């Protein structure tokens, strides 16, 4: 403020001296000494005003830096390791802080913190690697940011009275209400409600008992078999889920590692990467343990997948870790309806991203799964 006052005073003096100099020619020769003095004053004033301007500029610059420092946050305080997303809709996964959106992470989705920067975490997830805003990341599931809109499920008293017979337990955590209902078969018991006045012989009673016992044994056997099947299914699903996660992780690694054009180690038979899609895709699958070898053609890749037990599926929806083939667009491939490009699906849903080799950029890249006509999608059975 002091410097601004000084600037005003000097500017006023400068204006007065300039006015005096303009009037001197009318006074004639007698005013020559006065003119020299005024010129000296004007020169000093110009120097002073220049210094004042510099001082004010420095003050403004310093003030701006201080403001920036105050505004710069440091929300990313969780340690490296497992964490959870806490949002009402979704959290954007970006290629850098405030960068392009790579994928959308849902509430309670598990992530892995690998680094931090100001208000951002660098993370690994099932949908890829990137940066997320720290305010929506927590060390426990079912957590929500105080700045994120939340909803609470509540019921009227009458409704609660009606549900007393069916509600088993109620847990309330961070503005969420979870209601667990009894399995309707939990408390079912077989009772004989029929009554007969006629006499029943012992042989008839024994027959009835045998029938009930055999039915019970059959029921128990069926239950055991269904449990075994369910356990087998669960084990297969967990193995499949782990493989899909690994495939997506390896694909993201390739995109990150070979981000520069021509940096991927293409085979000489791919014409410098122009026909390198099969090599890129099978490299991901081999690194993830889904295939045992790398192939340089789309038809060869399709044959390897079939041999490894992968099945062709209808899409959408897609699943993360699917292998996608696109149709040929020119020459003999178009007439044969053969695949001409192959890639990896990076997320689950209807409108998803895929990773494949870019013929023009000579590197693995992310793009829409529907950018070209679909030939087919294969999934691990």
Describe the structure.
40% of the residues lie in helices and 22% in strands. By secondary structure, the protein is an alpha+beta fold. Among the domains are: 70 residues; 58 residues, SH3 Domains (SH3 type barrels); 131 residues, Alpha-Beta Complex (endopeptidase fold (from Nostoc punctiforme)), CATH 3.90.1720. The strands form 4 sheets. Strands 10-15-11-12-13-14 form a 6-stranded antiparallel beta sheet. Helix 1 runs antiparallel to helix 2 and helix 4 crosses helix 5. About 16% of the residues have low confidence.
Task: Please sum up the structure shown.
With 381 residues, this protein is of the alpha+beta class. The chain is 40% helix and 22% strand.
């Amino acid at each position: 403020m002091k410097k601004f006052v000084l600037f005003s005073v000097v500017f006023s003096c400068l204006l007065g001296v300039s006015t005096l100099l303009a009037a001197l020619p009318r006074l004639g020769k007698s005013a020559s000494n006065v003119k020299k003095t005024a010129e000296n004053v004007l020169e000093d004033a110009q120097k002073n005003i220049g210094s004042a301007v510099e001082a004010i500029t420095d003050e403004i610059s310093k003030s701006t830096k201080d403001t920036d420092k105050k505004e710069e946050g440091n929300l990313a305080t969780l340690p490296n390791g497992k964490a959870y997303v806490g949002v009402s809709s979704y959290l954007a996964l970006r290629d850098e802080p405030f960068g392009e959106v790579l994928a959308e992470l849902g509430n309670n989705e598990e992530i892995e913190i690998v680094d931090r920067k100001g208000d951002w975490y660098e993370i690994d997830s099932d949908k890829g690697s990137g940066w997320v805003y720290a305010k929506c990341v927590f060390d426990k599931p079912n957590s929500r940011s105080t700045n994120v809109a939340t909803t609470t499920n509540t019921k009227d008293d009458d409704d609660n009275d009606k549900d007393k017979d069916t509600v088993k337990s109620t847990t309330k955590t961070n503005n969420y209400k979870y209601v667990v209902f009894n399995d309707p078969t939990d408390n079912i018991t077989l009772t004989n409600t029929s009554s007969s006045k006629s006499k029943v012989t012992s042989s008839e009673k024994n027959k009835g008992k045998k029938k009930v016992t055999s039915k019970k044994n059959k029921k128990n056997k069926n239950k055991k078999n269904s449990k075994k099947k369910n356990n087998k299914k669960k084990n297969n699903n967990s193995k499949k889920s782990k493989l899909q996660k690994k495939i997506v992780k390896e694909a993201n690694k390739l995109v990150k590692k070979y981000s520069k054009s021509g940096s991927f180690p293409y085979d000489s038979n791919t014409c410098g990467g122009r026909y390198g899609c099969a090599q890129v895709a099978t490299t991901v699958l081999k690194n993830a343990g889904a295939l045992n070898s790398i192939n340089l053609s789309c038809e060869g890749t399709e044959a390897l997948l079939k041999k490894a037990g992968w099945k062709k599926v209808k899409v959408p929806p897609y699943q993360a870790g699917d292998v996608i083939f696109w149709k040929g667009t020119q020459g003999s491939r178009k007439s044969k309806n053969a695949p001409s490009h192959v890639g990896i699906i990076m997320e689950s849903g209807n409108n998803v991203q895929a990773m494949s080799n870019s013929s023009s950029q000579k590197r693995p890249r992310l793009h829409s799964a529907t950018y070209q006509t679909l030939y087919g999608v294969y999934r691990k059975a």
